[in-house]
Specification:
With 332 residues, the protein is of the alpha/beta class. It folds into two domains: 177 residues, Rossmann fold; 136 residues, N-(1-d-carboxylethyl)-l-norvaline Dehydrogenase, domain 2 (Orthogonal Bundle). Helix content is 52%, strand content 11%. It has an eight-stranded mixed β-sheet with strand order 3-2-1-4-5-6-7-8, sandwiched between helices.
């Protein structure tokens, strides 16, 4: 089977290399010719550990060539990049094939999860071919063979199982979860909480503070998810709690590091420049708050992160605001 991986960032590169080890014909598409040429020459990503996996990946800037003969598409661009990229895909690939969303985010203004953005662009005939993978996973570790477990979801059960079978490997375990809404929102919303945890660590508030942010943050995620029709239990699985644990506790998480830099006095623009990659949580915070207001679901942690990003509050001030909130019974 030929698989087209759209996006040559660390995650797209990692997934392409992983799929190639299973014998799939992989074509990894990216926009920047010089960078794609470098990947083709070295077979290694400059932001990942120097690890060569068995299997061959073809790198190209020609989207038509990447899609030609493909039986599966793996998306790995950015939340903002999905819509324009798929607008090109629908012109080049008129017959629906399995599409796996791997980015984690919520589209601003529309409030759509990324699988639904794909359907909005590609059309209803694609609905039963659209799926996603999500869960606690760092490209830096996956590429080195660290045991990793995630979930796959799709609107069609057969497509969901096809995704599981395609990605499952000796060190990469994929569990099926039919709750598309919960899987997508869990993967997106945890990035907002990761920024808050980065701020907590950057302010040297200690592990007790971070544990509280993680726990209450997960509660926020679940409350909004329930209002949007997600299953509560999904938020206690790999794409919810599992991803929260990972991204809220390590500088390997760009969202956590982003929050840490904000607490250290960086502006959002300076922090983004220092990280050098897209910080999805910064955009997701805005989209999440739009949804929380529409559904009357308070999200104080996410709200405080957004206010820091918008220059309305300093990181240290956000702590006092959260601690002075009216105490209510802990409803889980």
């Amino acid at each position: 089977m030929k698989i087209a991986v759209l996006g040559a960032g660390t995650w797209g590169f990692c997934l392409g290399a992983l799929l190639a080890t299973k014998g799939y014909e992989v074509s990894n598409w990216g926009r920047q010719q010089a960078f794609i040429d470098e990947l083709a020459r070295t077979g290694q990503h400059p932001k990942l550990p120097p690890k060569r996996l068995p299997g061959k990946v073809t790198y190209t800037t020609d989207l038509a060539a990447a899609l030609d003969g493909a039986e599966m598409i793996v998306e790995s661009v950015t939340t903002k990049g999905i819509r324009p990229t798929l607008q090109q895909v629908v012109e080049l690939c008129p017959v629906p094939i399995p599409l796996v969303i791997t980015s984690k985010g919520i589209e601003q203004d529309t409030g759509l999860i990324l699988p639904d953005v794909a359907i909005d662009v590609l059309g209803e005939p694609w609905r039963n071919t659209v799926g996603a993978i999500s869960g606690p996973s760092y490209a830096q570790e996956v590429i080195q063979g660290s045991p990793t477990s995630i979930v796959a979801t799709a609107y069609d059960a057969k497509v969901m199982m096809t995704i599981c079978e395609t990605f499952n490997g000796k060190t990469f375990r994929v569990y099926p979860n039919s709750d598309v809404c919960g899987v997508a929102f869990g993967g997106a919303l945890k990035n907002c909480i990761a920024i808050a945890c980065g701020v907590s660590d950057g302010l040297k508030l200690g592990n007790s503070s971070k544990a509280a942010v993680m726990t209450r943050g997960l509660h926020e995620m679940r409350k909004l998810g329930l209002a949007l029709g997600c299953k509560a239990e999904t938020f206690y699985g790999l794409s919810g709690m599992g991803d929260v644990f990972l991204t809220c506790s390590s500088v390997m998480s760009r969202n956590f590091r982003f929050g840490y830099l904000l607490a250290d006095g960086y502006t959002p623009e300076q922090a983004r420049a220092e990280i050098g990659m897209v910080v999805e949580g910064a955009n997701t915070c805005i989209a999440a708050l739009q949804l929380s207001r529409q559904h009357n679901v308070p999200m104080p942690i996410t709200d405080n992160v957004a206010r820091i990003l918008q220059g309305e509050m300093k990181p240290a001030e956000s702590v006092a605001v959260l601690m002075q909130r009216t105490v209510k019974e802990e409803h889980l």
